Amino acid sequence: MKLKLLELTDDKARILFEGEGNTYINALAAELLNDPDVDVAQHRQAFKFTDPELVVTTVNGRSPLLAITDAAKRLSDVAGEILRKVEALETA
Q1: Gyration radius of the chain's alpha carbons
Q2: How many structural domains comprise the chain?
Q3: What GO cellular component is one of the record's annotations (predicted)?
């Protein structure tokens, strides 16, 4: 996965996900909204054939990159749990 940082301020980040589809970015944006210090987590895509962009704004001094990192880790934990449960079904 190739990421390109388009904009970064104390309370806003815009990241382009080069060559990626919408599924992960939509899940990441939804998970970001679970963080009380995230004001906006939005998936943008100018045209269907362009790379998707994630826009995140934060409040209360929260770093937008830290919020993204934490949300990605939570998604990874959920995916790992699902994987373990599916693998357990295969061996049962």
Answers
A1: 15
A2: 1
A3: DNA-directed RNA polymerase complex
Q: Which residues contact 40 (CB under 8 A, 6 or more apart)?
A: 55, 56, 57
Q: What is the tens place of the pLDDT at every residue in 18-50?
A: 988 888 999 999 999 999 999 999 999 888 888
Its domain, for residue 37, covers: 2-91
- Among residues 2, 78, 68, the alpha carbon closest in space to that of 29 is found at 68
Cβ distance 39 to 48 under 8 Å?
no
Flag whether the pTM goes above 0.85: yes
Q: For residue 14, which amino acid is it? A: R
> Which CATH number goes with the domain that contains 14?
3.30.1360.10
What burial class does residue 56 get, using C-beta atoms within 10 Å of its C-beta: 0-12 exposed, 13-18 middle, 19+ buried? buried
